[in-house]
Amino acid sequence: MSIQDLPPEFEPLLNRLLNSPDEEISQSEFDQFQAFLSTNPEAMQYYFDYLDINLGLQSDLKARLEALEQTFKEQNAQQPQPSPHPIVVRRTAMLRYSAVASCSLLVGLLLAWSFAGFLPGNQTPDPQSSKEERTYVATLTRSTDCVWGSESPPEFSGQRLMSEDLVLEQGVAEFRFDTGVRLIIEGPTKINLVTSSRAKLDYGKLVLHGYDPAPEFSLITPLLTFQDIGTEYGAQIHRDGEVDLHVFAGAVRVAPNQKNDQFLESVIIQKGQARHLNDRKIEDIQLEPELFKREVPGTPQNLQAQRQELRVYDSFHPPEILDPEPASPWQNTGIGWVNPWRTPKSGGRANLGLSRPHESLARTEVAPSQLGLLELRGEISFFRKLKQPVRMDMNAIYYISFYMQKIKTDLKNQSYQYGNFALLPSDQQEDPPKIRIGMSINNYAILQAGPQIIERAPPLQSGETYLFVTKIVASEKASDQVFMRAFAEAEPIPDQEPPVWTCVTTPFEDSNVFDVVRLHAGKNSAYLFDEVRIGSTWSSVVDPDRPRLVLEQ
Q: 35, 47 in Cβ contact below 8 A?
C-alpha cells in the first residue's frame, strides 16, 4: 500500500502536520485528519509506518497502541482542560498530540481492526499453528563472553527476543528494544524484557542509551522506577534493591514503586550527577563512569570464524576475462552455490543476462577478483541453488545483501519496471512462496515475506546504486519476522544493524525451506546486480573486506 492509494487530501494534511516546522495547523484541520484515521485502516497504517521510520516507534501495532494509551492516560490527568475557543497548534506540540492523543482516542477501534484482520498485512491466525503468538520486544544485538543461566537463553547476536526473564551469569550483552533504546547489561544480572518500552531489573548492572525522539523507557527495580529523558545512564541494582545511579547525559526521573512519607514525589537526577537511592532516601555519591561497560567490548574474530559467517557470495567476476568482454563467462563464480546461474526454458529467446567484468557497484574499492556485475534486461530471471538453504523451520538468523541499480532507459512504456532479489523453494514452482526484496513498479523499496507485501516511500532513483540489506529471523516454535533497509549511495553503512529499517514485517509464520536465489528484471526495465551475500551476521554482509578474506581461503 502506498500514499497514492489514499484520498488525495490525506497527504497534504500529513505533511502539514508533521513535516513543516514553522507551520501551524488549525483544530478543524486536525479534526479532518483524525477523521481520515478513524474511518480508513489503510490511512492509520500508513501514518504509523511514517512514525516508525521517522521517529523509531515500535513496529508492533497492538503493543504500540497499548503503550500510547498508557502514556495518554498518564499525561491527560496533568493537562488543563481545553479552551472552548478555536485554537491553532504549532507543529511541535501537535506532533506529540497527534502521536499520543489521536491514537489513544482511536485505540479501541484500531485494536478491533487489528484483531479482526482488517489492517494491511494482518492475517487471521491459523488455529492449527504450533508457533507461539507472542510479541517480539527487543533484539540481542551484540554479546561478549556471555554465560546465560535462564531456561531459554539467547543463542546468537541478532536474535529477536520476546517478553521473558533472562539471567546473565557473566559477560556483557546489548539489547536494542523496538523503540530504539539500547540496554547494555553486565553479568551477574537478572532482567525481564517486559515490553518494547519497559524492562524490569531484579539485580545487576546496566547502561541505558536513550534518545530524544523515542518514547520514555521505564526501568523497574525492586524499589524504584527510572524513566529516561534523552538519557545515557548507568545503574547498579544491589540484591537488597538499593541503587547506585550515575547519569552521563540527559536526565533521569526517579519515583518509588510505593508512595511513602519519605519520598513523596518523583525527583530528577541531571547529567553529571550520581546518587545512592532506595525508596526512602537519596544520597550524593561520586560520579564514576569507569564502573560501567558503556559499550560491548569488541572481540576480534579469528579468520576462520569470519569466513564461516559469510556462507554465500557472488561478485559475477568471470574466472577469466576474455576479449571481447561480452564473451566472458560469469554464471559459475562465487561460493556457496550448487550450480551455475540459469534461466528457465524460454522458447528460443535470447539470453538477456550480460556480464560486465571490469565494473563494480560496490561503494568501496574491491579486489580485482571481485570486479564484475550482472545486467538484466526485459522480463528475465536467473536462478541459482544454495548449498545451505535459508530454513524458516528452525531457530536461525540470516542476513542478505546486494547492490542494485535501475538503469535509465528511453522506453515510453513505464509499466512493469521492477527488479528484485528473491528466495524460493525449489520444490514448488507454481506461484511459490517467497521472500522478495527490491524496487516496485512505483520505484519504492519493497519487501515481500509470508503473507505481507510492504512498500515504502520515498521513491528510489534510476541511475543510483542502492545497497539492500535484509535480516530474516526464523523460529521453530515462535513467529518469524523480516527486516529490510535500502541504503542510498550517500548513506553511511553502520557497523551494526540499524535501529530503524526501511521495511519491517509484522511477525508471521513460515516453515518453508528456501534453497533457490532468483534475480529478476521486469518487462520494459533494465537492472544491474552486484555483490550478492548471505551470512549469519550483520558484519558478514556489509564488511567490505569479508569477501576478500573468503576468496583467499
A: no
